[in-house]
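Exercise 3.2. Students should predict the tertiary structure of the chain below and write it as structure tokens, then compare their answer with the key that follows.

Predict this chain's 3D structure.
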Amino acid sequence: MPAEGTRGGALLAVDEDHYSIIASEHRHFSVSAKLRSVEENNEWWLTVVYGPQRDQEKLEFLREIRAVHTTVSDKWLVLGDFNLILDARDKSNSNLNRRMMAAFRDTVQALELKELNLTGRKFTWSNDHTQTRIDRAFCSIEWDLMLPGCMLQAL
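Answer key:
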């Protein structure tokens, strides 16, 4: 997915010794691929996202995630820079957009997604004044059952 200026962009790639891409689709804020495991012969969808900065586009982004959900199988992992927070604890100051937080939470709950645990750090983005957790990974229950115990490790 191409960058716009200094923002955005996403790359979805696989190690062909382990996975093959058997289908893909590109939308405005996401790129998705159906993967097949070489070793275990199971299939699942991976979606990489880059969420927009402006609030109106954030609502379009959340609608897109819901639309992607309708085209993928029940085994689904969605990850990337959502540019949204779920909870006040995801930001180091009290300048919060509670409406956007609620819209993000509603989308995650409606899609019945589970967040993968992040270890090694609390926040994923910072500038001189603020730290936030805007980079995340979510999976469907079926994906979690297929690959139990997966987590994110900050490097």
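Discussion points: The domain at 7-148 is CATH 3.60.10.10 (Deoxyribonuclease I; Chain A). The chain has a mean pLDDT of 92.
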